[in-house]
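Q: Fold this one first, please.
A: Sequence and structure below.
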Amino acid sequence: MRIFIAGATGAVGLPLVRALCALGHQVIGMTRAGPSVDLLRELGAEISTADAFDAAAVQTAIATAAPDVVIDELTWLPADPADIIKSLPNDTRLRRDGGANLLSAAQAAGVGRYIIQSRGFYLNAPEGELASETAKMRYDAPGEVGNSARAFGEYEDHVLAAPSLDGVVLRYGFFYGPGTWYRPNGAIADQLRKGAAAIIGEGSAVWSFVHIDDAIAATIASLTADPGVYNIVDDDPLPVAEWFPAFARWVDAPEPPRMSVEEARKAAGEEAIYYHTRLTGASNKRAKSQLGFTPRPLLWKAK
């Protein structure tokens, strides 16, 4: 296939380009001009330099590439996870405006399949239950998290409703493994070693992770799977109070201290509290059934 990937040099984009090229696909990687171009060139991908916010440039890029599939892996995330909330407005704008430009261009070019990265940790499910693919985003989340959830939900709806293409929504869990924040030498481990990370309140929010390589495998499987929504998460959704200390042990870091909700509200804001007390884990049953998804056990669960 000819596969156009927007966000081709990101945490998912680059290993996805590598895997697809190795499988013999013709990959066109979209990125802004700069050093990242060389990362794509050395993998053997074609290069398309365009800014996702420039609708005309995106239209030209996709029309020129004439792909069978467009994959949107665009993100705007900081190198330091402490800045995640600050970066969310830009990430939300990229999702809303950049995604709209990509989708419009794909439809105009007659692309057959359109795959997007969505979030498997903004989902609404009853307490104590895992969110299925029918779950909606948490539109009532506070502040920038709510804005982000609404942008993702609207984008999902537009993709799935597009009559001229097969829309696929991949709701990834929190990435861990090479090139991510969650690895032995990653940003979260560094925070723990500096004593800069804590469990807020009861740490009752349930997180679903996915190893980056398992996410890549599921994305490749989605090239030919039935259209629709898939939760790309592992089998081990755990509350923050359980997974965070286990992660600290896995990376040989001190166990995270506790912080009260009141302290966190002053120091970090409502969004941070939400991440530690309200998030819901997700079910991967459909991905296992339809994509042959076989995620590895969470690497630090038993540590």
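Q: Good. Now the second chain.
A: Here it is, same layout.
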Amino acid sequence: MTRPPTAAQRRVIDAADPVTGRLRGTPAQLAALVQRGLAFRHPRPPHDHFLTPAGHRIREAPEPAGATPPQPSSPADAGVFTARAGGEGPSDGGPARGREVHSAWQGLLELRRMTNPGGDTDRPCGWERTHLVQAAALALEAAGHRPAGPEGGGYRVRATPQPEAVAVREPDPEALRACAATLEKAGWQVGEHSEPRTGARYVLASPRRV
């Protein structure tokens, strides 16, 4: 059984960029994570280190009982960015949120550049295929679309039984078409469909592979 990471290693993992998985730490810490298969060193300059899928799983798993939680240097460091999929309730849509969304989207584009063959930023990367709802919601929020709130209206992104597909619903037909156009521009394959019983229109979107 693989040994769990040390407390110091866990702090480095937990402090990784929430979207790209980019790591910050001492050379010794980063080398140890690479040796354990929890991180990799990107071959192109500036040779940053990123979490592997195993590293992401550790970060997303709860801390073992009795473990000492990492101590963030500030409240902002403790927060994890989450794109709004719609229906979460009231949110701060001010400048601070706008900066967070912009930063997360730029980080995702960088992750595409560093992990897609040929540095292609026009199509989704592996992280997006394992975080479909978050990836689609981030593309929509970064483009300025409004997520659904308590008052109704706005988009909602939800998982579907189909592999690698999310459903996007928006009561305004024109806004729904705009959401579809945004996702298509972001590298998703989209198609508009109707609910069999209600006739309500929705968009089915899947990350484009080529």
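Q: Anything worth noting on the second one?
A: Confidence is low (pLDDT under 50) at residues 65-79.
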